[in-house]
Each structure stands twice: as structure tokens, then as C-alpha cells.
Amino acid sequence: MNRKGEKIGWIGGWLGGFIWLILLSAVWIVQGKISNGMMGIILFIFAVSLIFMLAPWKHPNTKYWKLMLPIYSLFFISVALAIYLYDELKNVGLTWMSLLWIIPCLIPLVTIGNRKWNIDG
């Protein structure tokens, strides 16, 4: 059974969720904030590694939520780091209530969290 679309969805979806980090890192480097940029690049590389290492077709009998949890954790660490490196939300024109926009990102945990790649298992 060819599940190419699902593989593209996993990789593309997660990469899309982290693309802001590499772009922000490039901005920091251009601004001369080399250490901030390098931290962002390292986190992005780690995220890409996790995306491929925890791909469901490599762990066909593991529930998706177990595979997504480490990637989600790194995502939230990345958001927290970006907020910290910008010296809090006020400097980017946001409030703590703005973080509520992250909640919809968690929908896949509920909708597909109990599924496995192995349909038969």
C-alpha cells in the first residue's frame, strides 16, 4: 500500500510548523545576534532530525501521540526561546493571551493521536 501522501503530510506539516524558526534565526544573524541565530538553527536542525526519526512509518505500531509529543515539546521550547530572546512578548507587540493561538496546533493530538501507522495492528 503506497501512502506517499501521508508521508508528505507528516514531513511537510512538521517542517511547516518549524519554518518560522529558521527564518527568525536568519533575521537574528543579519541583525548581528549571532548566538540567538545559532541557537535557532540548532533547534531547527534538531526538529528536522526528530521529524524524520519519529516518522510513523518507522514506528508502525506506536500511537501517533507518542511520536508527536517530543516534536510538540520542541516546538513549545522553540516558541519559549523566541519569546525569551526577544525580551518578552511586549517587545513584539503581543500579550500572554496571544499564546492562546497555539491551542489549535494541538488538534492533531486529539484527532489522530490514538491511531497507528500499521492499520492492521
From TrEMBL:
Superkingdom as given in the UniProt entry: Bacteria
Q: Where are the transmembrane segments?
A: 12-31, 37-55, 67-86, 92-112
Which controlled-vocabulary keywords does the entry list? Answer: Membrane, Transmembrane, Transmembrane helix
The keyword Membrane is assigned to this record = yes
Name-wise, this protein is Uncharacterized protein
